[in-house]
Design goal:
The complex is a heterodimer of chains A (392) and B (309). Chain A contains 12 helices and 17 strands. Chain A is of the alpha/beta class and 392 residues long. Chain B is mainly alpha-helical and 309 residues long. Chain B starts with a helix and ends in a 15-residue tail after the last helix. At the A-B interface, helix 7 of A face helix 1, helix 11 and helix 12 of B.
Chain lengths: 392, 309
């Protein structure tokens, strides 16, 4: 009897081990079909961050005949590894994209667990031989939008509805404020935090609070068009964020920040397919893609950089730029856009001297910020009014 | 400017954000008064929101959207009613299941509606006469959704029915002591079914308010936890529609003020304020002796089977 139990146990162990071996990932052979898995933090229906990643997934899935994609939405940070387990073992993914900062440690753990699978993590800073990082960043676009906001505000109060006070948002709000102040030194940017990426009620009430304070132009970091809608209902102007939100308020959306994650996904997947990227050489692969790579776009919707109804006002507003002399805001925007969008970038919003709002020199004259200092930025530039958790 | 504009804007937002809370709470009060706890508010609400958005987008008739949302909420609540009243399942589990089902179903059905603007949202209206009252007028009765005024009017009606009519006595009797009510010839199951459906209808209308007025837009999970606040507000209201109004508007005012006062108080503390307030009230209310006096239905969450005590 005991022997029988022992035999069964041994058999079970062998079987399980066998399944595990069969299930384990094999190294990807270049030129063979790729199955790419995408892990999303939110619902693909958020019309913000996750929606933008999923639009990109569909574009690359259509573009490459050798590519099959799968995705999992609404994944909590704590479920990162178990979700990857499923993608690797059940869906046989060769490449996995994890699209939220929260997934960073889970992705790293999974990268160690599956050394033959290729990982790419969005917006983080930890890498491994089989784990790259990527980010399409908006700070240049926010600066350009800031130039417009500064010229179009009548109350000199501009509202910004932020999600979480993390370096990414602090960088964007500061770049935006530098733009505002470049054309309108009397204007200030009033910031409110919702402590949520997507909470329409929070975004709505935060916007209403800023309207009550007198703000008449709005920028935001929220995964929904709520700020655009609330601003328009109160006769205020705004910008699109992530997704084209022009149609929610065609008379009130000036421009915006649009993303093309597909540019990064296509480049990365193509390089995996042709063997440039393997599970052994990603330690230093970090995509930090901006205007010049086409990963981000300035526009109310694709192909509409500035809503035509605001162009005359921008052309009629003349400012005295220390470098370019007397120039219309419209021409200033075009000049800066050209300087940042064409290869051989000759302008950066954070080019020194930049002082923080406490008066400390953060970027010395003539200097630019490194990617590392941009991604770990905690200070706020002058002109930002509002709480700033973590301010040095 | 000054304190007057602070009061006016706070009142206006208390009404605007408080209305879906109030609608949901009014319905849940009736369900719980009859002895059925329905944790499925969030699910019924989002189904209503989805239905209202689709109907309004297709027909251009926001009020048709509201009616369909009410119907969808009511029908959807039947799942909970059937499970918890007829099958005598655990009300907590069944309600939670309804929430999950609603969120998931609406999320999947709503995929193609994401990112579409709504051209015919519910319009705003100003109440003649009342809007001339200083501060209260511009705060509560100027340029608000008609549904907000309707919800306000429903409060005394729902209160009167519950405490001063035969129907109300029957509902409360079923929630307090179903066996006695049964022995007096009351059809316990029928009363409970009706009350749960009333709760569903109200949740559906609250959802419509969110998707075709408050936002107006559709995104997955757009109710964002409002259904859970309703559960807390129902207890806060001591199962009384009048206190339901006070609680809903008060919570909404705090929620808005959290953003106005961010300049001076840390955002995370302010964000927690309305919830801390809700928890404090819950602790206060749930102290045993108080609970009886304040009107918690004695048979809440208890399925009723004739002859079992």
């Amino acid at each position: 009897m005991q022997k029988k139990i022992l035999l069964t146990a041994v058999l079970a162990v062998v079987l399980i081990a066998g399944i595990a071996v069969i299930g384990a990932a094999k190294a990807y052979v270049p030129g063979t079909p790729i199955t790419a898995g995408f892990i999303y933090v939110g619902p693909i229906g958020d019309y913000g961050w996750t929606h933008a990643h999923d639009v990109a997934r569909q574009i690359v899935a259509k573009e490459f005949p050798w590519l099959k994609t799968v995705y999992v939405e609404n994944v909590a940070a704590g479920d990162t590894v178990s979700t990857i387990d499923k993608l690797v073992n059940d869906k046989h993914c060769n490449v996995i994209f994890t699209t939220s900062f929260d997934f960073m440690n889970g992705t790293l753990a999974a990268a160690k667990k599956y050394p033959d699978v290729i990982f790419a993590h969005c917006s983080g800073f930890k890498r491994a031989p089989n784990m790259a990082t990527y980010m399409a960043d908006f700070y240049q676009v926010y600066y350009l939008n800031g130039l417009m906001a500064g010229a179009l505000t009548k109350t000199n109060k501009i509202g910004y509805v932020g999600a979480f006070p993390i370096p990414e948002l602090k960088r964007h709000i500061s770049a935006f404020t530098i733009g505002v102040r470049t054309v309108n030194p009397n204007a200030n940017v009033y910031v409110r935090w919702t402590e949520a990426w997507e909470n329409p009620a929070a975004a709505k009430e935060a916007t209403e609070a800023l309207v009550a304070e007198g703000c008449d132009v709005f920028a935001f970091t929220q995964d929904s068009p709520t700020v655009v809608q609330v601003a328009a209902a109160n006769g205020a102007l705004s910008f699109s964020h992530y997704s084209p939100m022009y149609r929610f308020a065609p008379n009130n959306v000036i421009s915006g920040e649009l993303v093309h994650w597909d540019k990064i996904y296509a480049d990365f997947l193509r390089k995996v397919y042709n063997g440039t990227y393997t599970a052994h050489n990603l330690q230093n692969v970090d995509y930090w893609w901006l205007l010049s790579q086409g990963a981000v776009e300035m526009g109310a919707k694709p192909g509409m950089p500035i809503n035509p109804i605001f162009i005359n006002k921008l052309k009629a507003t003349i400012v005295d730029d220390p470098e370019l002399g007397k120039i219309s805001v419209y021409d200033l925007i075009q000049t800066r856009l050209d300087q940042m969008a064409n290869p051989g970038i000759t302008f950066d919003p954070f080019q020194g001297p930049v002082y923080d709002r406490k008066g400390k020199l953060e970027v010395p004259a003539g200097m630019w910020m490194s990617v590392n200092s941009l991604t770990s930025m905690q200070w706020a530039v002058k002109g930002i009014i509002g709480p700033w958790p973590g301010e040095p | 400017m000054g304190w007057e504009s602070w009061l006016i804007s706070t009142f206006a937002r208390a009404l605007a954000y408080g209305t879906p809370l109030l609608l949901g709470t009014l319905g849940e009060i009736y369900a719980e008064r009859s002895g059925v706890l329905n944790l499925g508010i969030e699910g019924m609400m989002i189904m209503g929101a989805y239905a209202a958005f689709v109907v309004t987008s297709k027909t251009g008739q926001p009020w048709l959207g509201v009616i369909v949302a009410a119907a969808v909420g009511g029908v959807f609540s039947l799942i909970h009613a059937f499970a918890s009243i007829t099958l005598k399942a655990n009300q907590v589990v069944s309600g939670l299941a309804l929430t999950m089902l609603g969120l998931g179903l609406a999320g999947v059905l709503g995929r193609s509606w994401v990112g579409l603007p709504l051209f015919t949202p519910l319009t705003r209206a100003t109440v003649p006469g009342l809007s001339a009252i200083p501060i209260i007028g511009p705060g509560f009765f100027t340029r608000q959704c008609l549904l907000a005024y309707i919800a306000m009017l429903l409060v005394p009606i729902m209160w009167y029915i519950l405490f001063h009519t035969r129907i109300g006595v029957t509902i409360r009797a079923v929630g307090e002591d179903p066996a006695t009510a049964d022995s007096l010839g009351v059809n316990v199951a029928r009363v409970r079914y009706l009350c749960v459906v009333v709760g569903g209808i109200f949740a559906g209308i609250a959802g419509a308010y969110l998707s075709i007025y408050y936002r107006p837009a559709w995104t997955a999970g757009m109710t964002g936890g409002i259904g859970w606040i309703v559960i807390a507000l129902t207890i806060f209201a001591f199962w009384n529609p009048v206190y339901g109004l006070v609680g809903s508007y008060f919570f909404a005012a705090l929620y808005f003020l959290a953003y106005r006062m961010q300049m001076w108080v840390a955002p995370s503390i302010l964000k927690a304020m309305p919830y801390v307030f809700a928890i404090l009230i819950l602790i206060f209310v749930s102290r045993g002796t108080l609970q009886k006096r304040m009107g918690a239905p004695a048979a809440l969450t208890l399925p009723y089977t004739r002859g079992e005590e």
